[in-house]
Amino acid sequence: MYQHRSPWMNEELLMFQDSLKDFYSCEMVPNEPRWQEQGAIDRDFWNKAGEMGILCASVPEEYGGMGGDFRHEAVIVTEQFRASGVSGFGNYVHSQICAGYIFDYGTEEQKRRWLPKMATGEMVCAIAMTEPSTGSDLQSIKTTAIMDGNEYVINGSKTFITNGQHADLVIVVTKTDPSQRSKGISLMVVETENCEGYSRGANLKKIGLKSQDTSELFFDNVRVGPENLLGGEEGQGFYQLMKALPQERLTLALAGCAVIERALQETVAYTSERHAFGKPLLDLQNTRFKLAEIKTIAKIARVFLDDCVDKHTKGELDAVTASMAKWWVTQMQCDVVDECLQLHGGYGYMLEYPIAQMYADARIQKIYGGANEIMKELIARSLMSDSSNG
After folding, report:
1. pTM of the predicted protein model
2. In terms of residue numbers, what domain contains 52?
3. What amino acid positions are annotated as catalytic residues?
């Protein structure tokens, strides 16, 4: 049903898109009910994804990646959520976020040490920002990495960590200088296998995203060498985080747009078949008007994100625009899915229908990656700059 072709798509990307649809349909969709029951996807699925070229697609071939760019990542994210509806595969954290940090800021040795293993699925990566007492205010984190002899000693805890149960590699946001706020932040990379002092809590129970493993992580005198300091220089972590956040927020917006499109498709199909008052629901004016509104939202979101993807691929996407994309598209995602569930009636509340799962999964989109209230604050701050320049 959905016919939009993004202007940045080319023939190679279209072929890649088709292969992704087949892979997701065969390898993900049939397993999703079992994955939801166990609270995580199968660990060996990461290896299958690596063989398919889904992991680290924008990482250069010399570091084990596919050698693509962000357009490839955009196709991967979009098809996961639009074609398969499987929300538990945390590749957007592993590839679009973590691999980006290591490639953009890592030393040459760090890139060669970790990226090839991430590309094959041998290593699953997570990023540990949020703490039990600290959400969006990253400058107030309490986890420390203090040099002791020739090693850093990490102490603290993190929570709500995607890929936490599977993670072989964790990028940990720490304070190497607790007396400072942003200037004291550094990113430490922890290899979790046989890591003394590192532990993970239980897989957290969530409203949605039930096939995605989400954990608390604990660091009790975890010792790592200076070669695990991302980029090799202390105090660069906050800068690294801020530079990388536009891509994270664009990725979340792409997922949200894909869900909007899928919700529309599912609801058109349902209302075409379901009858009320002697005719299909789709023939009722209220249904048609609601779906007309949703189709308009889907089109606006996709065209806006096409512009964002094009700009980001060229290195031109600014933080304010990325914040606009994140808050607006995820808000529209929640609104649209709610409307579509309403059009399903009581069946929309039944988990056997995809719209119910989309409803449960959507709510977190307005919170993680920076709460939407923070996005609006960042946009609002630009108003003063616009005013002074005007």
Report:
1. 0.94
2. 11-123
3. 248
